[in-house]
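Recall the central idea of this unit: under ordinary conditions, the amino acid sequence of a chain determines the structure it adopts. In this exercise we apply that idea directly, starting from the sequence alone.
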Amino acid sequence: MTTQQTNGLAERAMLVSLSIRQWSAAKTDKKVTREVADQHNSDVTMGKYHKALLAKGALDTIKRIAGETRTEFYRRTLPWLDDGARILTSTGYMETAEYIRKQQNEFDSAVQTFLDSYDSFVADARVRLNGLFDAGDYPSFAQLRGKFGFTFGVRPLPDAEDFRADIGTEELAKVRANLEAEKTATIQTAMHDVFARMREVVSKLAERLKAYNPSKPGDAPFRDTLVTNITDLLAILPSLNLTGDPNVARFTSEIQSSLTQYSAEELRANMFSRQDTARRADEILAKMEQYL
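Accordingly, the structure predicted from this sequence is:
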């Protein structure tokens, strides 16, 4: 990675974080755990009885929205350090921020719908759990609201020059150099992730194309997602190109022209199309190896 690629990175990217909290509606019943251990004359620490506090489905909409949001957040961003922050380019910010706002509105709406029905869910649980029901397991309405949260944070990329502790000129220079080296290594890891994502979708396509047998489609199924996963990735690759690496742009163009000319239906139906696309995929993978 060249200095030119990392210069001005603070203007081209930022750190973003996503935090979504939700109530699990589950609890370990210590009383039943002890009773089961006593019944079987076993060590009480060797098992636990977990009970659902609400009927299945009560929180499904909230869980679905949270899961979808996390998946898409990771898809649109690149790894940073281990503090939960991710790198997002300025190019991808507006679209990502709009998506996150939409998801947050859906999340908040689903939470409110759940809260409006909370009393009826608890009443239903009282019947379903019967003797296992314990009113003390259930948070108050005010406590429950605090168990849900959705936060999207944005902050600038760190700059070693901003570190100004009074530790002496020589030591300060060493610390700044270490910080800059750590930042460079992290950016390299992030760009490696971009190439890894490309390799993953291309290799899966090649593998399935070679294995697919139209007379026995169930043995090695060729699903539409093998093609749509490629087109979905191509759509965001420009915004993932953190350093403006020309090789990312080159592979994006090559994958676009070589691997998206046939639909999944055409690939299943035509042996020539499968063989031609598999060959092109293998050629791309061979070129990509030096970047991984």
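The mean pLDDT is 88.
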